[in-house]
Amino acid sequence: MKKSILLVEDTEDLGEMIFDILKMSGYQVAWAKDGGDGVAQYLSVRPDLVVTDLVMPVMNGLEVIAKIREVDSQNNVPIIILSAKAIPEDQEAGFKAGASLYLKKPCSSKLLLDSIKELLK
Amino acid sequence: MKILIVEDNSGDLFFIEEFLHRTNLQIDDQQSARTMREAEELLTKEIFDVIFLDLFLPDVSGVTAFQRLNPKSISAAVIVLTGLLDENIALEALKHGVQDYLVKGEYDEKLLEKTVRYAVERKSTQELLKISEERYKILFEGNPIPMWAHDLETNRFVMVNNAAIAHYGYSAEEFSNMTIFDIRPPSERDRFMLHLKKIENEKQHLHNSAEWKHLKKDGTVINVEVISHIIPWGTTKVRLVAAYDITERTKTEDHLRLLESAITNANDSVLISEIGQNNIGYSPVIYINHAFTKMTGYHPDEIIGKTASILHGPASDLKELQRINDVMKKQESAEFEIANYTKDGEMFWNNFTLVPVADKSGIYTHWVSIQRDVTSRKQQEEITRKKLEKLINERTRELHEALAKEKDLVEMKSRFVSIASHEFRTPLSTINFATNFLQDHFQQLDAAEISSKLKKIEKQVIHMTSLLEDVILVGRNDLNKIQVIKTTIHLRSFIDKIIEDVSQTTKNTHIINLTYDVKTDHLVADEKLLRNIFINLLTNAIKFSPGRSEVDFKLKEKDDTLYLEVIDHGIGITKSDKEHLYEAFYRGSNTTTIAGSGLGLSIVKKAVELLKGEMELNSEETKGTQVKIKFPME
To answer: Does position B175 have pLDDT exceeding 60, yes or no?
Structure first.
């Protein structure tokens, strides 16, 4: 059975690219285009893994992670932050909110895919 | 009455004693001596009122007898007893001071009594006269003030006292050959002559003829003050003169007058006040000079008796006034500078010293204050101080400005690093993923899919390039270096195109309500700058009003001016962010969930300035933002 991934990304072109990459690698992908939508889709899809941006409308990435950790505390779903915010403070805040991994944009599709594979083991 | 009879002839002695006995004279004591030696012995012990003297004694005879007796019996009336043949000698004796004489055998008790009574009376009168003369002599001769008398007709000295002799250096004999003109310097003689004529007819007995110059024998000229008095002198009249030497006093007075003149005419103001005996803080003014009147407007009669506090006023520093008070209490010298007021109420700066002056016994009696109007110096100082202050302020401001600019640059740099990296990372990320995707799945992809991905890459490159241009635009500090390229623009189609572009890039989330009230078709302006303004404002309005569906865009022409207004009902701008509105890379604190470079408004601002327009921004957090711009149409 295909593993499911929730992608939360507000930038249209980038989101589309990641969506294509994940799909081509054999994952079932749900794409939410803002933080609020991200939380809503998480609750309906119950994905195996979440990839989220940080700077987004409605709810930012940190709020999305905190909400997921709050509503689904026992599941401990892996969450990857994929963000253009690149300073150590942002990374620290990400882990504090409950992220499993912090990837800086731009990153290669290989790094993203290898990380997902590792986290889904 | 005590009687002594000096008679060697016992018969003669018997007679006179017998006759005396028969008189009515009151005789308390009666003694006799037979020789001059005996008489002298008695006279050393006792004083007699009447002495009968026989001129022919065993040890002395003739007038000599009287002359020996006289010094020892000065107060006694001497009556000579003589024989009939010796009457001439008796008469001679009268000339020497003998009161009377009796011829032996020629007198009876009546004549004797009469002779004694007369002799005693005459002697007593002579004695009184003698005492009076002695007193007069003492008063005149012994007077410490030079005195003389001169004849009113001849002006010759008729007598001079010892003090005059000592003071003028002439002997009594020299004086007796001189007139009063001889003790005057030639320069004074004419004036003196006139004076004499003037007082000649005056009835005033005592005359104070004021000051004269007199000449001493040694040539010294002295100043004298003369008091004269006409007195009878035998059958004629003389003028009695007392001359006080006031040379020293005049010298002192001249010296004082000179000093006073110096003070009176000094350029500095001088004020002298008395030190109060009971209250040393109270010091009434007793003198001011001309300069003081000139400086303050107060004339002597307006300030004398009052205190110098009459000069104080509202601007007089209380601390300085207190210091004056303290100094006066301690009786020290000190210098002050204080705001004073003239009689007309005009303020001036008074710099003055206060010095206490002591009397001979060392007790401070007066304050002497030398004062000077230093207003112009003060004003100059004030001007210099203000100039300096202004210069310092200018320099400080320049420094602050430079520091602020430096700080702004540092902040801008740090904001640039974080925002630019973020803004570049997203498109770079898209490009990277797209190339990875193409590489990884090249075999499985058809031409349309490959083309779509390549277009995405191309779009990101365009986006990044435009971002770079924005950065370069705001990075330019010198606006003059940016060239304004003016072209003719058809405004309506230009606006329509912008609305279309903005709607597309914002994915038609909002309707842009255009109100177009411009009559002029064509506008000459820099198209690129204009575009920057419209795109940024409209994009901002849409971007910062998520969840809303409309923004208003108004254009109006009035008096050759283009009015532009963009209104949204979005998140607005917080109060604290407003002051940073136009700073490059600065992002509002409420925009963390909205992507952006922080360049939009700073670009708009610069573009408006380049087009010589004005910009106004009104915003309220959570309510929305209104931006108004106007610029001249050409």
So the answer is: yes
Tell me whether residues A106 and B437 touch, CB distance under 8 A. no
The answer to whether A12 faces chain B, any CB pair under 8 Å, is yes
Q: Is A2 helix (H, G, I), strand (E, B) or coil?
A: coil
Q: Is the pLDDT of residue B475 over 90?
A: no
Reduced to 3 states (helix: H, G, I; strand: E, B; else coil), residue B198 is helix
CB contact under 8 A, B593 and A56: yes
Chain A residues with CB under 8 Å of B432 CB are: 106-109
Work out whether strand B550-558 and strand B347-358 pair parallel, antiparallel, or are unpaired: unpaired
Q: Where are the domains of chain B?
A: 2-139, 143-250, 265-373, 479-632
Q: Check the CA dihedral B78-B84-B85-B91 and report its sign.
A: positive
Tokens of B407: 């700080």
Is A17 close to B441, i.e. CB distance below 8 A? no
Percent of chain B past pLDDT 70, that is, above it, reads 97
Please tell me the CATH code under which domain B143-250 is placed.
3.30.450.20
Provide the ipTM.
0.90
Q: How far is A100 from chain B (nearest CA, A)?
A: 21
Provide, as residue numbers in chain B, all residues whose Cβ is less than 8 Å from the Cβ of A17.
430, 433-434, 437, 453, 456
SS (H, E, C) B457-495: HHHHHHHHHHHHHHHHHHHCCCHHHCCCCCEEEEHHHHH
- Which residues does chain B have within 8 Å of residue A20's beta carbon, measured at their own beta carbons? 437
Q: What is the pLDDT of residues A36-49, one digit of tens each?
A: 999 999 999 999 99
Alpha carbons B458 and B466: distance in angstroms, whole number: 12
* CATH annotation of B265-373: 3.30.450.20
d(CA B213, CA B374): 48
Distance CA B56, CA B345 (A): 106
Q: Residue B65 — pLDDT band, cuts 50, 70, 90?
A: confident
What confidence tens digit (pLDDT) does each residue in B80-113 have? 888 867 778 888 888 888 888 888 888 888 888 9
**Cα B404 from chain centroid (whole Å):** 51
SS3 B233: strand
Domains B143-250 and B265-373 share a fold: yes
Closest by CA position to A41, among listed A69, A73, A5: A5
CA distance B261 to B59: 81
For B205-252, how does the pLDDT look when each residue is reduced to its tens digit (9 = 90+)? 566 666 888 999 999 999 998 888 888 877 788 888 889 988 888 888
H or E segment and range at residue B383? helix B375-441
DSSP tag of B61: B
pLDDT at B202: 65
Total residues belonging to chain A: 121
The residue count of chain B comes to: 634
B79, B5 Cβ separation under 8 angstroms: no
Task: Say how many CB pairs under 8 Å bridge A and B.
Answer: 80
CB proximity list for B237: less than 8 A, separation 6 or greater: B152, B230, B231
Q: How confident is the model at residue B451 (pLDDT cuts 50, 70, 90)?
A: very high
Q: Over the stretch B438-449, which tens digit does the pLDDT of each residue have?
A: 999 888 889 998
How far is the C-alpha of B296 from the C-alpha of B283, rounded, in Å? 18
Distance in angstroms (rounded) separating the CA atoms of residues B145 and B163:
6
Mean pLDDT of B243-269: 88
Joined together, the tokens standing for residue B263 give: 């003070």
Amino acid at B268: D
* Chain B contact for A28 (CB, 8 A cutoff): no
Is the CATH number 3.40.309.10 carried by domain B479-632?
Answer: no
Chain-chain contact of B507 with A12 (C-beta, under 8 angstroms): yes
Could you please state the CATH topology (level 3) that the domain comprising A4-119 is classified under. Answer: Rossmann fold (3.40.50)
- What pLDDT does residue B191 have? 85
Q: What is the CATH number that goes with domain B2-139?
A: 3.40.50.2300
Confidence of residue B203 (pLDDT cuts 50, 70, 90): low
